[in-house]
Amino acid sequence: TCLINRIVNKKFIQNYKQTLGVDFSILRRTNPDTQQKTQIQFWDLAGQDSVQSLTKVYFKSAQACLLVLDGTDGNLRQTAEKWITITRQNMKEQMPLRILLNKSDLPTFQEEIIEQLAGRYHAQVIATSALSGQNVTEAVDDLIDEIYKTTQIALPPQNVIQVA
């Protein structure tokens, strides 16, 4: 939730409310190559076990996935394995995926796990900080550029891209 707020509103909210169910945000962007205006919809799916059954619904129409994990989580390996498995089971084949390890600004951030996750899951894993904004814009821009390239023949109706 803090990361999506950083992406869309370019600011950090200190006292956020944890996502219960699903939250929705929109980012408007112009494709630098075609000047085509696009609306990027971010569907923030809560990480609780109770909403796992909802993931299929949102992945069905998504063109990409940002999987955000807490980089200070004491059980990060297990949490990552669980959510990467759920994500891969529900996402379309060839759908762009970025794994963002958030809270890289904190001393307990587990930098060493980035390469391990990237190698094991053959995915791009990026250390980010919703607080400082570190790597947030770059990670999202890279993902959106990949979406533009993979959908260059035709964007979805109304030039809307959905990111789960």
Automatic annotation (TrEMBL):
<dbReference type="InterPro" id="IPR001806">
    <property type="entry name" value="Small_GTPase"/>
</dbReference>
<keyword id="KW-0342">GTP-binding</keyword>
<dbReference type="GO" id="GO:0003924">
    <property type="term" value="F:GTPase activity"/>
</dbReference>
<protein>
    <submittedName>
        <fullName>Rab-like protein</fullName>
    </submittedName>
</protein>
<dbReference type="Pfam" id="PF00071">
    <property type="entry name" value="Ras"/>
</dbReference>
<dbReference type="GO" id="GO:0005525">
    <property type="term" value="F:GTP binding"/>
</dbReference>
<dbReference type="InterPro" id="IPR005225">
    <property type="entry name" value="Small_GTP-bd"/>
</dbReference>
<keyword id="KW-0547">Nucleotide-binding</keyword>
<dbReference type="InterPro" id="IPR050227">
    <property type="entry name" value="Rab"/>
</dbReference>
<dbReference type="InterPro" id="IPR027417">
    <property type="entry name" value="P-loop_NTPase"/>
</dbReference>
